[in-house]
C-alpha cells in the first residue's frame, strides 16, 4: 500500500498569531520533511519573524540558521525512510528569537548535536571539502543550543540574537 504524500500544512497568515509563546506572537508549523516543504516553511518563518519585528539583517540570519537545521533534518534524520514530519516553533524573547524544532526521524549520532568542523579554507577551490560546514554555521550563529531525544522524537532548541546590524561598508 502506497502512502499518500503529505502536503504543506500552513501559511504565515494562518500560523502567526498570538499564542502561548511567552506572551508574544509566535510561529508554529507542521510540515513534511521534504526539500520543497522546507523552502515553503522558510518563507513562512521569515514572514512571521518580520511580523514579530525582526529587522532585515536579523531575518536573513534567521533564514540561514533555519535552512541549515531543517535541511539537515531532511537529509539525515529521514535518510533511511524518506518521509516524516518536522515541527517548527519560534517566538520572540526580548532581543532574541527562540526556536524549537522537532522531528520523528532517527536520533543524532552519539545522542548529541554534531560539533562544528573547521576546515582549511586557504586551499585551492578544488581541494575544499564538500559539506561539513552546516553545524559550524549553526553553532556560530546561535546560543543555548541543546539537543535531546524525547521518546521517538528529536528536539533541537536554540536562540538567535536579533540585535545585529551588518555594515555594508
Summarize the structure.
This protein has helices at residues 12-15, 35-51, 56-77, 134-141, and strands at residues 17-21, 24-32, 85-93, 96-103, 143-150, 153-161. With 169 residues, the chain is of the alpha+beta class. The protein is globular.
Give a written overview of the molecule.
- This protein has 169 residues and is an alpha+beta fold.
- It contains four helices and six strands.
- The protein has a six-stranded antiparallel β-sheet with strand order 1-2-3-4-6-5.
- Strand 5 and strand 6 form a beta hairpin.
- Helix 2 packs antiparallel against helix 3.
- The chain starts with 11 loop residues before the first helix and ends in an 8-residue tail after the last strand.
- The N terminus is likely disordered.
Task: Give structural attributes.
single chain, 169 residues, alpha+beta, Heat Shock Protein 90, six-stranded antiparallel β-sheet, 6 strands, 30% helix, 28% strand
- Return the domain count: 1
Structural class: alpha+beta
> What is the chains' assembly state?
single chain
Dominant shape: globular
- Residue share in helix: 25-40%
Low-confidence stretches: 1-23
Chain-averaged pLDDT: 79
Query: Widest sheet: strand order?
Result: 1-2-3-4-6-5
| Annotation field: number of helices | 4
CATH architecture field: 2-Layer Sandwich
CATH class: Alpha Beta
Order of helices and strands: HEEHHEEHEE
How are the secondary structure elements laid out?
Layout: H1 12-15, E1 17-21, E2 24-32, H2 35-51, H3 56-77, E3 85-93, E4 96-103, H4 134-141, E5 143-150, E6 153-161
Helix pairs in contact: 2-3, 3-4
Amino acid at each position: 500500500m502506497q502512502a499518500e504524500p503529505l502536503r504543506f500544512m500552513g501559511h504565515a497568515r494562518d500560523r502567526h498569531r498570538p499564542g502561548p509563546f511567552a506572551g508574544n506572537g509566535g510561529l508554529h508549523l507542521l510540515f513534511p520533511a521534504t526539500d520543497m516543504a522546507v523552502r515553503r516553511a522558510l518563507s513562512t518563518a521569515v514572514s512571521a519573524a518580520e511580523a514579530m519585528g525582526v529587522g532585515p539583517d536579523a531575518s536573513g540570519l534567521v533564514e540561514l540558521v533555519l535552512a541549515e537545521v531543517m535541511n539537515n533534518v531532511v537529509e539525515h534524520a529521514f535518510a533511511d525512510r524518506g518521509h516524516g514530519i518536522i515541527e517548527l516553533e519560534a517566538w520572540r524573547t526580548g532581543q532574541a528569537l527562540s526556536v524549537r524544532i522537532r522531528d520523528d526521524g532517527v536520533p543524532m549520532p552519539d545522542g548529541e548535536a554534531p560539533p562544528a568542523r573547521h576546515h582549511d579554507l586557504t586551499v585551492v577551490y578544488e581541494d575544499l571539502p564538500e559539506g561539513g560546514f552546516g553545524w559550524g554555521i549553526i553553532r556560530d550563529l546561535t546560543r543555548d543550543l541543546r539537543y535531546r531525544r524525547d521518546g521517538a522524537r528529536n528536539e533541537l532548541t536554540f536562540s538567535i540574537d536579533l540585535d545585529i546590524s551588518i555594515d555594508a561598508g
